[in-house]
Design a protein that fits this description.
The chain is an all-beta fold and 114 residues long. The protein is 0% helix and 61% strand. Strands 2, 4, 5, 6, 9, 10 and 11 form a seven-stranded mixed beta sheet that branches.
């Protein structure tokens, strides 16, 4: 079992920055990939960024150059710079284990005012 707890969401003006944190506990040794997802109204969750156990990362085109995913032991971060109103939504931390099992956090709201 893996538990994921997000923090760091909030309200920020356009052009501002926020850093989301995801604290992982439990069988963290089994996590192969950590990712951040967000909900797009009317759509399923969209992958924003991911970091693999070897350190490789990838990003959605919409956030490249603005968001950075990183990991420090059992905490995964999403540094979000130059935020835009369209980045407003709930962000979720995700962990996928070596057994291909998905774990999700409870979500954290990010609101960007114009």
């Amino acid at each position: 079992q893996v538990q994921l707890v997000e923090s760091g969401g909030g309200l920020v003006q356009a052009g501002g920055s926020l850093r989301l944190s995801c604290a992982a506990s439990g069988s963290t040794w089994s996590i192969n990939v950590f990712g951040w997802f967000r909900v797009i109204p009317g759509k399923q969750r969209e992958s924003v960024a991911a970091i693999r156990s070897g350190g490789g990362t990838n990003y959605a085109d919409s956030v490249k150059g603005r968001f950075t995913i990183s990991r420090d032991k059992n905490t995964v971060y999403l540094q979000m710079n130059d935020l835009k109103p369209e980045d407003t939504t709930v962000y979720y931390c995700n962990g996928v284990t070596i057994y291909s099992r998905d774990y999700w956090g409870q979500g954290t709201q990010v609101t960007v005012s114009s």
